[in-house]
């Protein structure tokens, strides 16, 4: 789904928007993955092994992931002009703004693994797939309205990532409360 959304968005943005969009969108996705590297596997193992510790496991995993995401995002924010180079200088402000999604992407990964660890595979799959569906709907709606820009495309991704977590919040709270 992410591949399809990215290709469609790049096509709709055209040649002038494709590069800045790719430069901006790749950072939070990559950094969000780095922020939870190893943590999400530990969440899955611990929740399967000790379901009564789900709340404590998620609290520690969330704190560790958010600390990692903050550190990685700060380093990327400072290093981004060097990493993007002078050819992509126009993409720098929007790419830096997109870094705000790093934390939401990391949190979404943790919730997916909490659901999987608790045996809620449908919810785990929805948490993985729905952000892309919402992003695709936002992209299509923005394109039809003639409002699609790099900034609105990234805002559409943010709506998908954060929107799904809000939609799944009742299920997240249920998994954290029990029953164990």
Describe this structure in words.
Helix 1 crosses helix 4, helix 3 (54-84) runs antiparallel to helix 5 (101-117) and helix 6 (121-144) packs antiparallel against helix 7. This protein has helices spanning 2-35, 39-49, 54-84, 92-98, 101-117, 121-144, 150-167, 169-177. The protein has 180 residues and is mainly alpha-helical. It is 84% helix and 0% strand. The protein has eight helices and no strands. The mean pLDDT is 90. The chain starts with a helix and ends with a helix.
Short description:
This protein is an all-alpha fold and 180 residues long. It has helices at residues 2-35, 39-49, 54-84, 92-98, 101-117, 121-144, 150-167, 169-177.
List the helices and strands and how they pair.
Layout: H1 2-35, H2 39-49, H3 54-84, H4 92-98, H5 101-117, H6 121-144, H7 150-167, H8 169-177
Helix pairs in contact: 1-3, 1-4, 1-5, 1-6, 1-7, 2-3, 2-5, 3-5, 5-6, 5-7, 6-7
Instruction: Based on Cα principal axes, name the global outline.
Output: globular
Number of strands: 0
SSE ordering: HHHHHHHH
For the record, give the distance between the C-alpha atoms at the N and C termini, rounded to a whole number: 34 Å
Q: Which bin fits the share of residues in helices?
A: over 70%
Beta-strand content bin: under 5%
Uncertain residue segments: none
- What is the C-alpha radius of gyration, as a whole number of Å? 17 Å
Features:
single chain; 180 residues; mainly alpha; 0% strand; globular
């Amino acid at each position: 789904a992410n591949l399809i959304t990215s290709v469609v968005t790049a096509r709709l943005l055209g040649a002038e928007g494709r590069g800045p969009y790719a430069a901006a969108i790749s950072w939070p996705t990559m950094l969000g993955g780095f922020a939870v590297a190893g943590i999400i596997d530990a969440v899955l193992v611990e929740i399967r092994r000790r379901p009564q510790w789900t709340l404590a496991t998620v609290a520690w995993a969330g704190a560790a992931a958010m600390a990692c995401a903050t550190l990685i995002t700060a380093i990327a924010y400072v290093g981004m002009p060097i990493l993007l180079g002078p050819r992509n200088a126009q993409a720098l402000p929007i790419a830096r703004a997109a870094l705000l999604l790093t934390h939401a992407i990391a949190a979404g990964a943790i919730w997916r693994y909490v659901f999987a660890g608790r045996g809620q595979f449908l919810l785990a799959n929805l948490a993985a797939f729905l952000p892309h569906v919402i992003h695709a709907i936002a992209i299509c709606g923005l394109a039809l309205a003639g409002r699609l820009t790099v900034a609105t495309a990234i805002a559409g991704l943010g709506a998908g990532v954060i929107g799904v977590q809000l939609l799944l919040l009742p299920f997240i709270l249920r998994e954290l409360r029990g029953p164990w």
